[in-house]
Amino acid sequence: MRKTNVVRLLPEKEALWTLHAVGDRVSCLWNAGNYICRQAFIGKEKVPNYSALCALMKDSADYKALPTHIGQEVLKKLSKSWISFFALRRSFAKGEIRHKPGMPKYRKDRKKGSRPWDYIPVKSTAAYCVEGCLIHLAVPADIYSQRIAIPFRGTLRYQGDFKTCELLYDNAKKRWYAHIVVEYQERVVADERPEKHAGGDIGARRAIAVSTQGNPQSVVYSSRQAWKDYKYWSRLIAKEKTRLSKQGYKTSRRLQMLYRIRRLRLRHAMEALCADIVQGLRRSGVTHFTVGYPVNCRDNANFGKGNELVHNFWNFEILLRIIEKHCIRAGIAFKRVDERGTSSHCHICGRKVRRPKTDIVVCPVHGIMHADVNASRNILRKVTPALAGDGEKASPGWVVMRWNLHRWQSHAESANNRVLQEAAHAAA
Ligand SMILES: [Zn+2]
């Protein structure tokens, strides 16, 4: 499996200038190669693939201006973007996507009349190496006679064989970052635990319920607080956008920073959420985790005001991917299933339930239950038909976990904290 380490580069003045120059040449080569491809496409000829591009470009000044392993990688990226352009065209012809795809663009800023220099791809360790806290990078001979050494900050989280590397300049933060790809061997947890299942349900309305086999108590993660935080930053973004449009601008550094903060804060909550779920599963010895999610919900449904909630904030695909990642690390088999039909029947008796509100269901016999808990128990029942979930014994009890902007904690825990704080306050 390939994983990416991201570290921040700390280039000195000279190195900074070198990166700028190399980045500019990358854009030059990209544009020259792209010109050939675009002309071929417009002239209804065959667009050259990677090896043809290399053969065509190898004597050009733009190609020679870069170390081979950077030049080749640029052409590879270019031909990849043409391949995906053709794939998109095919999907468009079939009517699978709505917007007509455009040809890969030139790297230039029309407004400023300049080329961006914020991207340097490096093919392999032939052109860079990582030693201690230094990255050594091959640069064009006319710029500097040997490799430049750039110190970096950050840890290499994944260890393994180094593959490609990309140097990217973040315009909002005004910093260079290196994305170093490694071939990473996932640590597989060896065990002979007895098979034990857990079922999860991702609700369309920002909650996840998890039920474990043999445990009558389910856990519901309510992302209400995280959603409030997301909305807070969205309001700031909207304000900044209005301010900019009044002055006739479209973007600013501040706006980019706001987007970044919102994205990272959300990501933090989601990662913590999935880590907390999987930690709980691991503690109770679960070996198989099945998660149901609304498969067609996002494409077809229009939630009106809730669109932003479903499409940007509560994104099932991203959530599922993060859960899967944590499951792999913990050695738990992960499976996703369509959740259709799981919320309309009682998990104990199978009778049809009423749904007076979005988050509760009422069984004529068993009374009020949390809709997502019911769904997660139904999923658990589906995957363990021999055991039939926990059947009659399972009382529909659940704890609700909330995000306190640092970690997920149960209501009881936060109430406890409040009592302690009040006691401390009273004592003082
Ligand atoms: Zn029932």
Q: How far is the N terminus from the C terminus?
A: 55 Å
Estimate the strand proportion: 15-25%
User: Which regions have little confidence, pLDDT < 50, spanning 5+ residues?
Assistant: none
Reported for the largest beta sheet, the result is: 7 strands, antiparallel
User: What value does the Rg take, in angstroms?
Assistant: 27 Å
Structural class: alpha+beta
The percent range for helix content is: 40-55%
The general outline is: elongated
Please give the domain count: 2
Annotation field: number of helices: 11
Number of strands: 17
Give the overall average pLDDT.
86
Q: Biggest sheet: strands side by side, in what order?
A: 2-6-7-1-5-4-3
SSE run: EHHHHEEEEEEEEEHHEHHHEEEEHEEH
The distinct ligands, each listed once, are: zinc ion
Task: Note the main attributes of this structure.
7-stranded antiparallel beta sheet, 23% strand, elongated, 2 domains, binds zinc ion, 7-stranded mixed beta sheet, 428 residues, alpha+beta, single chain, 42% helix
